[in-house]
Design a protein that fits this description.
single chain, FAD/NAD(P)-binding domain, 3 domains, seven-stranded mixed β-sheet
């Protein structure tokens, strides 16, 4: 069996970003690295959006917005995002960036196969695919185990699920430099439901119908709601250019408890997704940088994870949405109606001081969170 220092089981965002940071660091040239994924990463299968004030992946962004609308059934507010920008990166552009870089690294191999199993055996690990097996010193796993989270009741498990249509309309109805961050004016139907609108010109935009809920919908329901929204915008003629579909886990389940000395769960499988919003890209950049720094001085992977106050904030929100899923609009609207957008985004990026935390938290419905706090303490 061929042996590697590191094997990445799954080559999604977290694995690719970590390997990307490994290459940029220049500290892993003597380490053999294998990435294994059944997806060849040669199609534009997703887009990532994130807010940023540091020029992160500026050259890869397919669109940027300096302002964004927040809307619900009773009010709308145009948010000045300064000093942030809201950015969109196409999946294929990111894949090409990473694969172009690792193609020049002789110590890195990508294998287009499906991982069937992996395990730790004393001081080494074994990874099995449908075709062959490999040994390694350490595994970074990003294959999400849904059953692990479903088969417990202590931590809520919701989905952020969506279908997006990229359309080109006959009428110039969009404002190219202003996105719609969340539009809760769509019928809630007992859930947390909203639309994203990400325009790239006056006639082109990505429209995503999104839910935070326990259960997925039939395909036709997402698409029917997108069609209704298109009519609401006053569009009578349009061309459907591209579709995308996604399902992001939202949970504070302590994935890190399943880590071992030589196996680390990363990405959504490791709790890297921001549990309260489903945002993944920015969190993954931070976590991958931290992991690469950690690996340069530490070998025991059980020591990587650190729990902080933001994990607990997210847990309280998910406790509320788990029991009263329809309250998402109420909570996010309370934050954004009069709150400082820059402080809110800083808070969601987990970079605020406790004083800044309070600026955001005190705008939320207090009794909901007090009840959730006591319920969590007694749980």
């Amino acid at each position: 069996m061929q042996h590697f220092q590191y094997i990445f089981t799954g080559a999604g965002l977290s694995a690719l970003m970590t390997v990307y940071e490994m290459v940029l660091s220049g500290k892993f040239k003597d380490k053999s690295i294998l990435l294994i994924d059944e997806n060849s990463k040669k199609t534009n299968d997703r887009t990532w959006c994130f807010w940023d004030d540091k020029g992160l992946f500026d050259d890869l962004a397919s669109a940027k917005w300096n302002s964004a609308w927040f809307k619900n059934e009773s009010f709308e507010r145009q948010l000045n995002l300064n000093p942030y920008q809201y950015k969109m990166v196409n999946g294929l552009d990111f894949y090409q960036r990473v694969f172009d870089l690792i193609a020049k690294a002789k110590n890195i191999t990508f294998l287009n196969q499906k991982v069937l199993d992996f395990q730790e055996l004393g001081n080494h690990c074994v990874v099995k695919t449908a075709e062959e097996s490999f040994t390694c010193n350490q595994i970074f796993n990003s294959i999400f185990n849904t059953e692990l989270v479903k088969n417990q009741t202590k931590y809520p498990f919701l989905h952020q699920h969506f279908i997006g249509w990229f359309i080109k309309s006959k009428e110039p109805v969009f404002t190219a430099d202003c996105a719609t961050f969340m539009d809760f004016s769509v019928e809630q139907k007992g859930n947390t439901r909203f639309m994203y609108v990400l325009p790239t010109s006056e006639t082109e935009a990505l429209l995503e119908y999104t839910l935070f809920s326990k259960n997925l919908l039939p395909m036709e329901e997402y698409e029917s709601e997108i069609q209704n929204y298109i009519q609401k915008l006053g569009i009578t003629e349009y061309e459907l250019i591209e579709k995308e579909q996604g399902n992001i886990p939202m949970t504070c389940y302590p994935f890190w408890k399943n880590n071992s000395k030589n196996i680390l769960n990363i990405g959504s499988a490791g709790g890297w997704t921001k549990a309260s919003t489903g945002y993944t890209f920015k969190n993954t950049v931070k976590k991958s940088k931290a992991l690469v720094s950690f690996l340069s001085k530490e070998n025991d992977l059980t020591k990587f994870h650190k729990t902080d106050k933001f994990w607990f904030y997210d847990l309280l929100l998910l406790d509320i949405l788990d029991q009263k899923n329809q309250l998402g609009s109420t909570i996010f609207s309370a934050m954004f109606q009069k709150g400082n957008p820059a402080v809110i985004f800083k808070f969601l990026d987990e970079e605020t001081s406790f004083a800044e935390d309070l600026q955001v938290i005190w705008r939320c419905p207090k009794m909901l969170f007090i009840k959730a706090l006591f319920s969590r303490i007694l749980r």
